[in-house]
Amino acid sequence: MTEFAFNKLVIFGVGLIGGSLARALRERAGLHGRIVGVGRSAQSVARALELGVIDVAAACDDAAALARALEGADVVLLAAPVAQTEPLLARIAPFLDARTIVTDAGSTKSDVVAAARSALGARVAQFVPGHPIAGRESSGVDAALPELYVDRNVVLCPLDENAPEAVERIAAMWRATGAAVHRMSESQHDRVFASVSHLPHVLSFALVEQILEAPDAQLKFSFAAGGFRDFTRIAASSPEMWRDVCIANRTALLAELDAYTDVLARFRAAIDASDGAALEAAFARSRVARQEWQERGGTRIPGDPAAK
Amino acid sequence: MTEFAFNKLVIFGVGLIGGSLARALRERAGLHGRIVGVGRSAQSVARALELGVIDVAAACDDAAALARALEGADVVLLAAPVAQTEPLLARIAPFLDARTIVTDAGSTKSDVVAAARSALGARVAQFVPGHPIAGRESSGVDAALPELYVDRNVVLCPLDENAPEAVERIAAMWRATGAAVHRMSESQHDRVFASVSHLPHVLSFALVEQILEAPDAQLKFSFAAGGFRDFTRIAASSPEMWRDVCIANRTALLAELDAYTDVLARFRAAIDASDGAALEAAFARSRVARQEWQERGGTRIPGDPAAK
Lengths: 308, 308
Prior knowledge:
Chains A, B: This is prephenate dehydrogenase. Chains A, B: Belongs to the prephenate/arogenate dehydrogenase family. Two copies of one chain form a homodimer. Chain A is of the alpha/beta class. Chain A has two domains: 8-184, Rossmann fold; 189-295, 6-phosphogluconate dehydrogenase C-terminal like domain (6-phosphogluconate dehydrogenase C-terminal fold), CATH 1.10.3660. Chain A is built from twelve helices and nine strands. In chain A, the strands form two sheets. Chain A has a six-stranded parallel sheet, sandwiched between helices. A three-stranded mixed sheet of chain A has the order 7-8-9, covered by helices on one side. In chain A, α1 links the parallel β1 (8-12) and β2. The longest helix of chain A has 28 residues, at 186-213. The relative contact order of chain A is 0.11. The model of chain A is unreliable at 300-308 (pLDDT under 50). At the A-B interface, α7, α8, α9, α10 and α11 of A face α7, α8, α9, α10 and α11 of B.
């Protein structure tokens, strides 16, 4: 394993994810490199500067400032909405040093890889796609925490073009935050997260939507209790972000949604037929799997041989 | 409002729900009536006796003990699985004093009312259907708490045959535990809970089932995080109980499931068409409704004029 060190790190979008990386590297790993935050405007990163999360604030729309920001950068992290990946990379490309490694934090990967190939051409070799699996209910740089990534998973989806040292350097950066780093292909990544993250969000939004459409919606909400609360917690998530995720990961998400609809149709038939044995067997399987998942520590997979 | 008092309360099934009522009336409301716990066998209520939650333990299958238990009872609460309502009431009927009021704690009501009419005939006037909306992840009398019902809702579904005083007495009993009491018809009750409780359980079980059926199930579970955790918490619920609820509330549940499937089909079409505007509008409506629900205090409806 390589130790991570850097002279200059550039973060595009210093919110919860980018800000927590900066704080983790500085406060948790004790690293002293220079951290530059880039926003759509200098104002949008002013708060990060004020909080001391970054050393320098730059505006993306100022070519000279952008050139200075990127000069001599070891690592660039894109932590802006996924839909901005291609325009951002196109904006960065002219100023990108040959030795700089670019990575991202987007929650979908096939679309990000396509955007990177389109914007960077042959220099896509400098781009290592990544996805830290971490979040909080609050967002923005004020919510950033140095320990956000401790014991969390980060997935890297290395490209054939990437030099192994480039991938290892990004892996070392995330390990320095306390995360476990895993590698998989971008299509595998997108299938996995369509299933365990994107689909549940769609299902949760759909339940609230369905109740809203009912003539007795207010009565129903009045008696919603703990089960509803947990099931719909993710329906309070950002509409813009989840709109983008659904579209960016459309193919994998539709496949999972169709498989889910099939299971639901089987459950419907069992309920309609009062087939208690079939319902109990399915519910019992789910309960055991959910309990085993919980007992393994949920998201944490200590000693997982896939963690590098 | 009537104050509640009792000389003798008989609880069939002294687990979390029945045990918490006993503890609330004694420890929270300071009432000193005699509390009799009845189980399938005397042994099944021995723990409740040992903990001091009840004063006397009786076995349901011992006719003489059952007769003694029911003699002079003010209130009888059925807190056994819903499917046992009819056999239990049939067993109780021969020993039921004319002045005793029977109520229940079942999470479905149309089936319970049908069972009560069948088992009690004209004496169904003595039966006031009820549903306390409270629970914990743990079950059994060891999990019973005197404050389980504080600020929670209890729904009563009075029958045309019930004397108003009988309904009011059961309402007063639940108010003494700290709960807010609401009244609605059994069909209204079953629609409301099919929507906000039974359907989410089915949807949550179905997600875990769908992942289990995938060839890469273990990989998917490995990367399941916070969204999955909240969404599937209720998939760890009792398979037997939810099997019974699904069948008991079949008609209302299927109606909600079909309405949900329609919403899901619309979401599918929007994702397939990359219709970001439609997705964002729906997600935003859900988010606002979910946040408003949370801000109103979730399950608590302080000052709700429907609370009596």
